[in-house]
Design goal:
Blueprint lengths: L2 H21 L2 H8 L2 E3 H4 L4 E2 L21 E3 H15 L3 E7 L4 H10 L10 E3 L2 E4 L8 E8 L27 H16 L3 E2 L6 E3 L18
Parallel strand pairs: 2-4
Antiparallel strand pairs: 1-3, 4-7, 5-6, 7-9, 8-9
């Protein structure tokens, strides 16, 4: 078989395998149709540690079936640009939370019904009417890591809902405050908007135009 034919055959086989993998993940297909993309498919160097897929969050229990991160394409592409800029400084991103199904939002509200911590989910006529920007796939919680993947010091840990997590907090460790400002500057340059009360939370561009979703996350890693 000529070399070009062999290459074409290999490509066809790869495409067939990819199509078969997608066919086995109806959740991914539904999320893709809704305009969401898995962040690591755009840049596998972005580290993922979805805290709500583990007990390591304020609820003390796993809420998601997997630690896979999906975001609206515009937000995901923005993170890729931020990652590229940070890489030149010997740094990178570690993502704590991305798209969150509305049903998971309701569970978080049941466990912590406090608007200071969790956006209250509201339904009208059996459909999501108000909720979190995470339910739109248009918000991300994240931090900075070094080249070895070690988290840089920040003013607080993730899901610390004290005054110390606020961006205008002036106390605490100055190195941690500088790291928080560095993260904020990089994210703002990438088109994201910071949340005043949580150093780790950023809203993606165009989040207001995104619908609230209750599509399940796929199982897996």
């Amino acid at each position: 078989m000529p070399v070009p034919c062999r290459i074409a055959a290999v490509l066809a086989a790869c495409l067939a395998l990819a199509a078969a993998a997608l066919a086995q993940e109806p959740e991914v297909e539904a999320l893709t149709r809704a305009g969401l993309v898995e962040v690591t498919s755009l840049d596998p160097t972005i580290r993922i540690e979805m805290r709500y897929a583990t007990p390591d969050n304020f609820t003390g229990r796993a809420v998601y079936p997997s630690g896979r991160c999906f975001l609206a394409r515009e937000a995901a592409e923005g993170l890729v640009m931020v990652q590229a800029r940070l890489r030149r400084q010997g740094l990178g991103l570690l993502l704590y939370d991305c798209y969150r199904p509305f049903s998971a939002q309701k569970l978080l509200w049941e466990l912590a019904p406090d608007k200071r911590f969790v956006a209250r989910p509201v339904e009208e006529h059996g459909r999501p009417a108000r909720g979190s920007r995470h339910n739109r796939g248009a918000a991300v919680d994240l931090t900075l890591v070094d080249t070895a993947g070690k988290e840089l010091p920040m003013p607080t840990g993730f899901d610390d809902f004290s005054q110390k997590a606020a961006r205008n907090y002036q106390g605490g460790d100055q190195t941690a405050q500088a790291n928080s400002r560095l993260l904020e500057a990089a994210m703002v340059e990438g088109g994201f908007s910071p949340l005043a009360s949580e150093w780790w939370h950023f809203d993606g561009p165009g989040w207001r135009s995104r619908p609230l979703l209750d599509l399940p996350l796929p199982p897996g890693h």
